[in-house]
Amino acid sequence: MKRRFRRIFGITLLFLTLVAAIGSVTVLGQGGKAQASELPSLREIYQDYFEIGAAVSIAGWSSKTFDRHRELIEHHFSSLTAENEMKPEALQPGPGNFRFTDADRMVDFAVEQGMKVRGHTLVWHAQTGDWFFRDGKNQLIYEKDVITEADRQLVIDRLENHIEVVMEHFGDKVYAWDVVNEAVSDGGGAIHRPDSPWFQILGDDFMKIAFTKAHEVNPNVKLFYNDYNPEMAYKRGRTIKMLEDLLADGVPVHGIGIQGHWSVDGTTIKEIEQAIRMYADLGLEIHITEMDVGMEGFTEEQQAERYRELFQLFKKHSDVITSVTIWGITDDASWRRDENPLLFDGNGEPKPAFWALVDTDKPWYVNKAEYTNAVEFFNSAGEMVGALKPGDYNLNELDSLGFNLAEVTGLQVEKGHLITFFEQEGQQGTAWHFITTEDFAGGAMATQAKSLSIASIETDNIALNKPTKANVLGERAHRAVDGEKISSWSPSAEPPYWLEVDLEGTYLLSRWVVRLHGTGPLAGEVEESPFNAADFSLQISDDGVNWQDVDVVEGNTASICDRDLNLVKASYVRLYVTRPTSVDRNNSLAVYEFEVYGTVLD
Ligand code: XIL
After folding, report:
1. What class, spelled out in words, does domain 460-600 have in CATH?
2. Is ligand 1 within 6 A of the CB of residue 125?
3. Active-site residue 182, yes or no?
4. Residue 298 phi, psi (nearest 5)
5. Beta strand 391-394 with 591-600: parallel, antiparallel or unpaired?
6. Residue 290 among the catalytic residues
C-alpha cells in the first residue's frame, strides 16, 4: 500500500509514528530552502505570553555557523542567553583577570536587535576556576581539615567581587541573572548539593551572600535561582524548602529558573504543572531557562507533540512564566547533539517541533502547510510543476493554479490534508477526494472539475463503540470495537467470519487497523504469529446490504495489520475473514480490536 507519494492523515500517536517512518516533506517554497524570514516568527507569536529566548555559544557564533544562526535568532527570539560565555570560568579565568570580549559581542548584538539578555550564571560549582577556592598557599580550601574564618572571608570576598564586577560591567543590559545555579542536592538527607565547593566552604550562607550582593549591586535586575529538575517530585520539596527559608530571611530571590532539559517521555505535564503552581505560590516569577527535548529513540513527530504540550502548559501559566529559553538553535550545535533536541535541524531547517510551536492548538503539519504548501504536483518525469497552500481554487482560468493541471500525474499531499476536486465552480457538485497519487490523473480532473479545495482534516477511530453485527458470536462482536485491547471477538466455527460496524453516518475513510491474536495476553503481545488471521478484507457499504472490498490482505502473519486507504466514502464497514489463521484447519480467530479511521463528511 505504501507508495512514493502516499500521504495519510491522522492524529493518534501511533499514527504519527507510522507516518514518521514513511517520512515527511520538508520542502519549503518550490523545492527551495526556507529563508528564515519566510517563516512565522516565534517572537511575534509569543509576544503576548512571554519572552522567547535562545542560548547561543561563541562556538556557534563565529564562522559560518553564526551566519546560519543569526537570521534565525533575529527572526524568532526576543531574549538571549550566553551558553557558556558568562560563566565564571569565562568571565574571570584567573583572579582579577576579567574577560568580557565574547560576552560583550553577544550582549551588543542582543541590544541591537532589541532582545533582552538573561545572565547565566554568577555562582555555580561547575565551569568555575578552582582559583576561587585556593588559599594563599595554593591549597584547595574545601580539602582542608580545618577551614578558618580567614579562608571563609577570602572566598566570600572573591564571590562578592565577582558578582560586583560582572554585574556592574553589564549593568541594565542584563535584565535577569541566574545568580546561583544548581545548588540543590539530588539525594535526600540534605538540601544543598554536597559536592559544591561554595557549600563546602561557606555552608548554606553562600546563597544569601550571593543574592544579597547581587541585589545591592543592581536593584533593577531580576534575580533567579536556576536548577535542573526542580519540577520533579524527587527534588521539588527540597528546592521549595530552600527558597522558602531564603524568602523568610528576606533574601532577594525574585524567580526560579527551571532548566527544562527534557525528553519525549519523562516528567509528565501534570507533574510540571504542579511544580509551576507551587513555585508561583511562593510569589516567584518562573523562567524556563534551558529548554530542549531529547529524542532518544522517539520520532521527530513525537518530539513535536511534546514541545506542543509543554508550550500549551506555559501559555496557560503565562501570568507567572515570563520567559522560555531554548538551549540552542540547531541540533548540530546542541550540547545534546546526539539527541537532536532543538527546533531546527543541522541545515537550519525547521523541524516538526518548530511547526508545533507556531500554533499549539493545531497539529504541527497543519501549521506547516499553512505557511508552506499542502499539496505538490508532479509531472510524469517526477518534476514538481507546482504547489498550493490550503484554500479554495477555481480552475476556469488556465493560469489560476500557476501550472497546467492536465500534465500532472502525481500528487504529494501533506499529512493531515485532503485535496478535493469539484464538478462545479465554488466547490459545488460531485466531489473527488485525494490524499495520494493513487488513482489520480490530472488530465481527467482538468476536464471534469471546475474548482478544488485543499483543507486540513482530523481523523478519529470512527468504529469505536459503534453498533456491531457478526455472522458468528454476534453477541460478542462489540468487544472488537470497545477500545479495550484485552477483550476480543473470537469466533471458532466455520469461516468465513464477518463483523460489521454501523458507523452511524457517512465518513471518508483513510486507514484501518486490526489487532489480532498475537496482540492479546495469551500470545504475549508478539509481533508475528501463525495464529493471526491470514486472509481478510475491509469491506464498505452505503446501506449495510451491498458490500464491496476496498482493501484485501492475503497471507498475513503480523499481529497488527495497519493499512492506509485511498479515500473512500462509507456508512458501514465490515471485516471479512476467509482464512482465520495460516495454520491449516485451525478455525479460531481472535480480533482484539478493529479500528477504522476517518473524517465525517459534511
Ligand atoms: C552546558 C553548555 O551547553 C555546554 O556547551 C557546556 O559544555 C557545558 O554546559 N545546565 C546549565 C548550563 O546550567 O550552563 C549547561 O550548559 C547545561 C546544564
Report:
1. mainly beta
2. no
3. yes
4. -90, 170
5. unpaired
6. yes
Three-state secondary structure call for residue 273: helix
The answer, yes or no, to whether any atom of ligand 1 lies below 6 A from the CB of 102, is no
Tell me how far the alpha carbon of residue 83 lies from the centroid of ligand 1, in angstroms.
6
Report the CATH number of the 50-368 domain. Answer: 3.20.20.80
The overall longest dimension of the chain from CA atoms, in Å, is 96
* Three-state secondary structure call for residue 506: strand
Alpha helices in 227-299 (DSSP H): 233-248, 269-281
Q: What is the CATH code for 2-13+373-456?
A: 2.60.20.10
Q: Is 119 exposed, middle or buried (0-12, 13-18, 19+ CB in 10 A)?
A: buried
335 lines ligand 1 (CB under 6 A): yes
| Helical pair 364-371 and 300-316, crossing angle rounded to 10 deg | 90
In sequence order, what are the beta bridge partners of 261? 292
Does residue 290 line the site of ligand 1, with CB under 6 A? yes
- The radius of gyration of the chain's CA atoms, rounded to the nearest angstrom, is 30
Give the model confidence (pLDDT) of 250-299 as tens digits.
999 999 999 999 999 989 999 999 999 999 999 999 999 999 999 998 99
Choice from 290, 292, 334, 339 to test ligand 1 binding pocket (greatest atom count within 8 A of CB): 290
For residue 97, pLDDT over 60 is answered with: yes
What's this model's pTM, rounded to 2 decimal places? 0.81
Question: Residue 384: CB partners within 8 Å, gap ≥ 6?
Answer: 30, 31, 376, 377, 378
What is the 8-class DSSP label of residue 264?
S
Q: Which residues of 243-261 are buried (b: 16+ CB within 10 A; e: fewer)?
A: beebeeeebbbbbbbbbbb
Residues linked to residue 286 through DSSP beta bridges, in sequence order: 256, 321
What's the pLDDT score for residue 68? 72
**Secondary structure letter of residue 33 according to DSSP:** P
What are the extents of the domains in the chain? 2-13+373-456, 50-368, 460-600
